[in-house]
Model the fold of this input.
Amino acid sequence: MQAHEIMNSHVYKVKEVDTVRSVIERFIKYRISGLPIVNDRNEIVAYISDGDIMRYIGKHKDIIVDTIYFVNVVQGDDEEYEERAKKILDLNVLSIAKKKVIKVSWNEEMENVAAILGGKQIKKLPVERNGVLVGIISRGDVIRHSFHAIL
Done:
């Protein structure tokens, strides 16, 4: 089985000129947690997730995890949480998005797709054909299609 056989071809996405506000609006409206960012030719140029937003609105100082797994944030950032949350809204989406996008070709074999999603610990994987975004595959898509016939 190949990626194009199970991918969702209806992909929510944003343009490289959009703001983080438009990303958050889509996250809320479509109940999603990540979006590919494309240029005018529909080529994938970056990817933004809810984690990227969380990292920005959280404290900007070093985070220390001690041996019993409590997280201690080093103090020193005087900017308030609400101020950071408001400031992010009008930023260009590319200012906080990941530019090195993990993606697959439309004819990638399913076991490779599963290995990438599991190994890289990502939730969704953009699918491209001839350099253009054509779909997206989630972990759930892989599970549903892999085990549907045998359950």
